[in-house]
Amino acid sequence: MTRPSVTLREARPDDSEDVGFLTEVWAEVMRRCDAEDRAGDVVSLAARAAASPDERLILAEYDGQRAGAVLLRLATLTPLNLEPVVQSLSPHVHPAYRRKGVGKALVEAAAAFAEERGVAHVMTASSSGSREANRFMARLGFGPLATLRVAPTAVVRARTGAQRAPLRQPGQTRQLGQVLAARRAVRRESA
C-alpha cells in the first residue's frame, strides 16, 4: 500500500473552497471580524499573491484534500537590515493532517522560493504559546532572531505615563490646555 502524498499548488482567489479553507485554517491569526470580511481578506491576499512575482500563497493537499497553507513573501530581514529574505508567513497545517509531512512540505516550498529568487535566508514565526510549532521549526534549523511583543495602544499609553505633556513639533507653540492652566495659576496667585 502506498503512502498518500503531499502536493503543493498556488491558492486561487476565485475558488470558494480554497478561500473557505484558508479562512478556517488562519482564523486565529486573522483580524477579528465576521467570517465574510475574513473571507474577503483571504481573497485579497490570494489575488495580490497571484499578481506579484514577490509573493506566493501556497496550499498543501494531502491525498487530494486541503491540508495546510503558507504565504511566502520576498522582503528584507528588517526595515533597517536590507538583506533580502523570504518570509514564510503563517504556515499552518489543519489538525487532521498533522504529522503527515504537510508542514515539512510547506517549509520546503519556502526554501524552493528562496532558491528561485537567489535569497540566502528564510524566516518564519510561530505563536509563542505553541510549543509544538516552535520545536518543529527548531528541528528544521530555524533559530530565534527577535521576540515580537504586542499590546493595546491604551495599555501602552497608560503604562508609559499619559499625563506627560505631548511632544511638540518644531515651531509649534504650547497647547491650549497648557496656556489655560498657566492662566489659572496666575489668577490663583493674584487672588
Automatic annotation (TrEMBL):
A Gene Ontology molecular function term for this protein is: acyltransferase activity, transferring groups other than amino-acyl groups
In this chain the N-acetyltransferase domain maps to 6-162
Q: Which InterPro entries match?
A: Acyl_CoA_acyltransferase, Bact_Acetyltransf, GNAT_dom
The family database entries (SUPFAM superfamilies) matched by this protein are listed as: Acyl-CoA N-acyltransferases (Nat) (SSF55729)
Q: Under which name does UniProt file this protein?
A: GNAT superfamily N-acetyltransferase
The protein's organism comes out as Nocardioides perillae
Q: Which UniProt keywords apply?
A: Acyltransferase, Transferase
CDD domains, A to Z: NAT_SF
Taxon lineage: Bacteria, Bacillati, Actinomycetota, Actinomycetes, Propionibacteriales
